[in-house]
Amino acid sequence: MVYGCASKTSSLKINENIKPAILTLELSEGKVLYAKNCAECHKLYEPKSYSAEEWKSILQEMKENTELDEDQVMKVYNYLIMN
Q1: 47: containing domain
Q2: What is the model's pTM?
Q3: CATH number of the domain that residue 55 is part of
Q4: pLDDT digit string (tens) for the chain, length 83 residues
């Protein structure tokens, strides 16, 4: 058997500002609602294209052009601001 001496510290640097790319059920539903409803009239914008405040304003205006209820709009909003 061979044994070695090494420190237990790792040189791996982790950026703690990176969000995990995991879609919850609600975020996944928001993504589908966004794709189905918004792409009917125009191209889909990347979520990072606008700030959370800008998305809120955009969705309030665009809601009038869809049949989405408030709950569904909130799912779209949450998807957009979390990605």
Answers
A1: 26-82
A2: 0.72
A3: 1.10.760
A4: 555 555 555 454 555 555 555 679 999 999 999 999 999 999 999 999 999 999 999 999 999 999 999 999 999 999 999 98
50, part of any domain: yes
Q: What is the DSSP letter of 50?
A: S
Could you tell me what percentage of the chain is helix, strand and coil, using 3-state DSSP and rounding each to the nearest 5?
55, 0, 45
Q: Is residue 61 part of a domain?
A: yes
CA distance 67 to 37: 9
Query: Quick one: residue 51, left, alpha or beta (phi over 0 = left, psi -120 to 50 = alpha)?
Result: beta
Residue 19 domain-assigned (yes or no): no
Q: Which amino acid is at 20?
A: P
